[in-house]
Amino acid sequence: MTKIKKIMPKENNKEKALAALLESASIIEAAETSGLSEKTLRRYLEEKEFSDEYAEARRQIVAHAVSGLQQAANEAVETLRRNLNCNNPQAEIRAAQLILDNVFGNSENAKPIEKQIVISFNFNNQVRLTNNDKD
Hints:
Distance between the termini: 64 Å
Strand order of the largest sheet: 1-2
Radius of gyration: 23 Å
Strand content: 5-15%
Number of domains: 2
Structural class: mainly alpha
Helix content: 55-70%
Oligomer: single chain
Number of helices: 5
Shape: rod-shaped
Order of helices and strands: HHHHHEE
C-alpha cells in the first residue's frame, strides 16, 4: 500500500504536466499552470515514455485541427458554389474569380491549392502553417 502512495503523486504530477504543456504557450506558463517547476517539466520531457505520450497528444490535437479546417474548407467551397448562382452579378463574379485563382493560380499572388501546406509546431506548443512551395 505504501508503494502505491509513493507512485500515485508522481503519476498525478505527470498528468498535470502533460495537460499544462498541451494547454500552455510555453514551458514557463505550463510550470505556473501545473504548479510544477520548469526543471521538472523539462526532466519529464526528456523521459522517453512521457515525451512519446506528449508527442502523440500533440499529434492528435493537430489532426483534430486539420479535420476542422477541412470541414471549414468544404463549407467555404459550398458558399462559393452558392454564390456562383445567387443573382448578384458582383458576388457571382467574385466567387468565380476566387475559384479560378485557386485552381489555376493565374495571378502572381494566387496560391494554387496544389501547393502543399506544412503544419508544424514548435517546442512552445504554437501551431504554424507554412507554404512548402520552393519557388
